[in-house]
Amino acid sequence: MEPAQDAKGFKQDFMKRWTPYFKKRYVLFFIVSIVSLVIPFIKLNGNHVFLLSFDRKQLQLMGVAFDMQEFYLMPFLLIMMFMFVFFLTTLGGRVWCGWACPQTIFRAIYRDFIEGWLLGMHSRRNKQKSAKMEKLENKAKKVVAILIWTLLAFVAASNFMWYFIPPEDFFAYMANPSEHMVLLGFVGGVTLFLVYDVVWLAENFCIYVCPYARIQSVMYDNNTIMEIYDDKRGGVIYDQSGHKIADKPSEGDCVGCMACVNVCPTHIDIRKGLQLECINCLECADACAPVMASLGKENLIQWTSYEAMETGKTKIFRFRIIAYIVMLTMAFSGLLLMGSKKEHMLLNINRTTELYAVKDSGIVENHYTFLFQNTDSKEHDYYFEVVGNEDIKISRPTEPFKLNAGSKANKVVVLYTDKEIAKNDRKDTPIAIKIRSFAVDDKQKIVVERDAVFFYPSTEVLNEKKAK
Ligand code: SF4
Ligand code: SF4
After folding, report:
1. Fewer CB near the last or first residue (10 Å), C or N of the chain?
2. Which residue range forms the structural domain that includes residue 295?
């Protein structure tokens, strides 16, 4: 960043940067940070607004808990996420990078707030101090800045973890760190990465590491809104092959002050045109505005589209944008539809290896293993019934059983019949049945139905058994 023009103090230096786009971005940074911190604590119906818990094997979304076996929602979420990124990039270029990306926000906190506003590291040289003294002081300030950021990076790393480990569990685990070394190592690792990333890697992350930078340019079209240097008014600085002609054009309004270049966090010259490194922060536009205003002219760097530069208007609703809106709507409808089909309990039915058992009294039994899972946020008593065949009855278990929220239980189930429900001399008869399982205290909401088969022996087997 360019040193301030006067030496009245670092807070004044910071306030000088409190320009229109800068102000709007920082307000949004603040909102995004608060929302990210608060979301993991918000609960609806006892569940989180968003939690992808590997521990509980659950996705909690808008207060509804989805079990691993219900992860059919994930594709819809992923499709929505990708579609939204494509939509946003086509519409507003790298607007995410400049306005809401954690990397940009972290850099703003470290560079502008800690180093700049708090420690005054970007202020103009104090002539009353020797260069050696000032160098030493800056080194000490750098250490302090890194320490402060390390503390904040730890909060950010913990905040990241709260989307995977609910805060209530996280704090309980952290209170007993010796038993949760993996978690501690993970938080420590993310913290260290954030320190390295924000302090040393800086905007190089956006240029060389982030994959989004590589793919974004293919989504741009003539109507994409981005920061554009108006070379018709400003004058040409670079030739067709990208070689610089001069800092100041021979013709045009650009005075070659380099304010736009000096302020750029990715160290590029916007006057060269669209570049992969540009993160859409608009600091160059803010830097050029007062220079041009002092000459009574309009800003040479604008947040607009090439189409608007030519025709005066950006076409928002074009084919690509409409296609993304349609796909987003479809994915969102799919998410709502599938989400509304959420079952508050799960039931898997497996047969035991034995097909059936015939008792001396002629009673025929079939044995099963039922896996019940309570996916609701409260405990319930569960039981089940055979639907559509009154002759098949339950022998075991004889009573409802309790299941805590989120827990599962394997139950041995015996169904029997004392009636002749099929007649085939030589072959066993498979009879399709339906099992309806429910929470005794909420039969309306917590109920599932599953298909199963009851095997009835052939007359030959029955007669053999009776003859013994
Ligand atoms: S050219 Fe530099 S200062 Fe301008 S928007 Fe892009 S990254 Fe920001
Ligand atoms: S800030 Fe404006 S006038 Fe100064 S070099 Fe950049 S484009 Fe030209």
Report:
1. C
2. 229-304
